[in-house]
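Handout, section B. The chain below has 272 residues.
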Amino acid sequence: MRRTSLTSATVLVGGAVGARLLLRRQAAVARRLIGKPLGEEALDADKKYKKKYGATLDLLVVGDSIAAGLGAELPKETLGARLATRVAKATHRTVRLRTVAQVGSESSMLAGQLATLPPSYRPDVAVIVVGGNDVTHRVPVSESVRHLEEAIAALRARGAAVVVGTCPDLGALRPVPQPLRALGSRASRQLAQAQEVAAVRAGAYAVSLAHVVGPFFITNPDEMFSLDRFHPSAAGYKRTAQALLPSLLAALGIEDVELPSGHRRPERLGAG
C-alpha cells in the first residue's frame, strides 16, 4: 500500500512539473509569435475634440496598452480619441482628452500614472482599462483589485466619475496555444469578475469587456485585432469605445436610462 501511494504521488508530482514546463514553453512561443511589431509607444491623441461645441468636458484615460490605444494606426483611432469623439457628439460639448495610460502597465502602476497629473486637474470622467498584464505576469487577483480600488478612490477624490472596463478575455488571443489560452481565459475572467465587484463597490461604473466586445474579437479576429494579433485594431477600438459609451454617458448624468447587459452602476455615489 505504501509503495502504491508513493508511486501515485511520484506520478502526480511528475505530471505537475511536466505541465508547468509545457506552459512555460507555450508562453515563450506565444511571446515570440506576438513579438513587438507595434513598438512600445502608443500614438498621442490628446487634444480637444469637436471644439465648435464649447462647454468643455475633461476625459481622462488610465491603464494599459489598450487604454493607451496601441495598435491604432492613426491618433483618431485610439480608444481615447474614439471615446472623446463619441462623448462630444452625444453631449454636444467639446471634450478635452488626456491620456496617462502606458503600454505594459499593470494595476500596480495606476498610482504612478495618476501621480503625473497636476494637483489642480479635475476630470469630469475617467476611464480605466487594465488587467491583461496582471494576468500574464501572474499577479494575485487580490493585489490587482486593491490597486484598482485605490485608483478609483483617488480619481473620485478629484471629483471624477469613473468607468472601469474590466479585463478582456485572453482566450480570444489565437497566437497563444492550448492549454495556455484556456488557462489565460479562465484567469482573465476571474480577474474581470473581481474587478467588477470592486469597481461598483468603490463607486465606479463597470463594463465587462469580455461580455460586451469579447464575442466580436473571437468571431472576427482578422478585423478586430491589429498586426500583432494581441492589441485591438482601429475597428477593435471603435467597437470597444461603442461598448463603453453607455456607462460614460450615465456617469456624466447625460443619459438616465437602463444600461445594456454587461454594464453595472456603482453601488454608492457621493464623496470619494
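Note. The radius of gyration is 20 Å. Compare this with the example in section A.
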